[in-house]
């Protein structure tokens, strides 16, 4: 029974799951939805795939798993990408929750607004939020850079799911207008993650 | 070596960890910070406790674990609160990530603004965000109510960490002005969670 990824290919949240699957060698069947046309808000999608109206969703037979970081955790579970040590496993989850609260709502949202929606098409409220999201995205990059000044990867001295999750939107942050030049440790870490033999690009 | 919870007692995010600890019988030493006075943004807090300037943080000796849901996962890990089944474990994480993305930024933030900051003291931007956060909070409650119409608890047919995490801010949603009357399944579930012999209130 193939695993099905319900996704929008340009979304970093969807890429997280494909990149994790590449690391563990899991094939995925992919179904595309155009989020700009509201294809994840149809009655059929809401009742059959995700009541929350969002992608990605990982389908395992009759079971559906929303939330990118939970789906990626499922794919990685049992592999070296999830540390066996109890504290390291929780520390990995700390970075995944931090990503969804402090990184994605800023860096991914600014990228989405600037590249897919277009600044001219933003609502007044989105326009008012933009400077705060840019500042919070820069603060997230600075926090990552400081951490990566002390270790080569986020949780262990090798790649784990935390690096894959944080790579997804960090490596396209410049598409949203974030300059990575002030963050040399982040840039070196991006290169380390991309040099892994199992790595695939977001366009794969 | 005692576990130390760096916290602000009224915060639902901090209560999550105390409630999880009560369920597994783990004693916690507690240190209070007044977030309204910026006590989690001091140079000492940023360098020694959490570079992200937020509570709760769970301290285990020299190790610090930020992010409420990651700290609660650490406390629950190895107990019945985390399902042994791989899919159920990922489904639990899906609810924890959903809580941090769709529930907490709306229901907890509106409660914080209305009860601790005060509507009169909100910035213009916060005031502009308020109606959207109220609507998103109501949508989160409606999604929970629909799910709880199909099962007594969120992931298994008994309490897990997902129920503890979602209980924390849902049970005080009315303090933020959210009316729970339209959500009978949520109200019945709140009573089931609170009836557990291991339960403690947020004021404990």
3D structure, described in words:
Two copies of one chain form a homodimer. Chain A is of the alpha+beta class and 204 residues long. The first copy, chain A, has two domains: 3-76, Glutaredoxin, CATH 3.40.30; 86-194, Glutathione S-transferase Yfyf (Class Pi), Chain A, domain 2 (Up-down Bundle), CATH 1.20.1050.10. Helices cover 52% and strands 9% of the residues of chain A. In chain A, strands 2-1-3-4 form a four-stranded mixed beta sheet, with helices on one face. In chain A, helix 4 (86-117) runs antiparallel to helix 5 (124-148). The radius of gyration of chain A is 17 Å and the shape is globular. In chain A, 42% of the residues are buried.
Task: Summarize, please.
Two copies of one chain form a homodimer. Chain A is α+β, with helices and mostly antiparallel strands.
Tally of strands of chain A: 4
Could you list the spans of chain A in which at least 5 consecutive residues all have pLDDT below 50? none
Head-to-tail CA distance between termini of chain A:
22 Å
What's the number of domains of chain A? 2
Greatest interface and its residue counts? Answer: A-B, 36 and 36 residues
Q: Helix- and strand-based class of chain A?
A: alpha+beta
Which oligomeric form is depicted? homodimer
Major beta sheet summary of chain A: 4 strands, mixed
Q: Looking across the biggest beta sheet of chain A, what order are the strands in?
A: 2-1-3-4
Q: Estimate the helix proportion of chain A, in percent.
A: 40-55%
Annotated CATH architecture of the largest domain in chain A: Up-down Bundle
Number of contiguous helices of chain A: 7
Rg of chain A, nearest Å: 17 Å
Just give the CATH class of the largest domain in chain A. Answer: Mainly Alpha
Shape of chain A: globular
CATH topology of the largest domain in chain A: Glutathione S-transferase Yfyf (Class Pi), Chain A, domain 2
Q: Can you write the helix and strand succession of chain A as a string?
A: EHEHEEHHHHH
């Amino acid at each position: 029974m193939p695993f099905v990824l319900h996704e929008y290919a340009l979304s970093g949240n969807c890429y997280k799951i494909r990149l994790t699957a590449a690391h563990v060698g899991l094939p995925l069947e992919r179904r595309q939805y155009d989020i700009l046309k509201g294809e994840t808000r149809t009655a059929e999608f809401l009742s059959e795939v995700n009541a929350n109206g969002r992608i990605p969703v990982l389908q395992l037979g009759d079971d559906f798993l929303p939330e990118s970081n939970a789906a990626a955790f499922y794919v990685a579970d049992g592999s070296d990408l999830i540390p066996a040590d109890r504290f390291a496993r929780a520390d990995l989850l700390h970075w995944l929750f931090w990503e969804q609260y402090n990184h994605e709502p800023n860096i991914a949202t600014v990228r989405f607004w600037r590249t897919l929606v277009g600044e001219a098409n933003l609502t007044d409220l989105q326009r008012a939020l933009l400077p705060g999201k840019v500042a919070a995205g820069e603060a997230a990059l600075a926090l990552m850079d400081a951490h990566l000044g002390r270790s080569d990867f986020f949780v262990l001295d090798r790649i784990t799911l935390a690096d894959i999750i944080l790579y997804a939107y960090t490596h396209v942050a410049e598409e949203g207008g974030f300059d990575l030049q002030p963050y040399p440790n982040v840039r070196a870490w991006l290169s380390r993650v991309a040099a892994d033999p199992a790595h695939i690009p977001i366009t794969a």
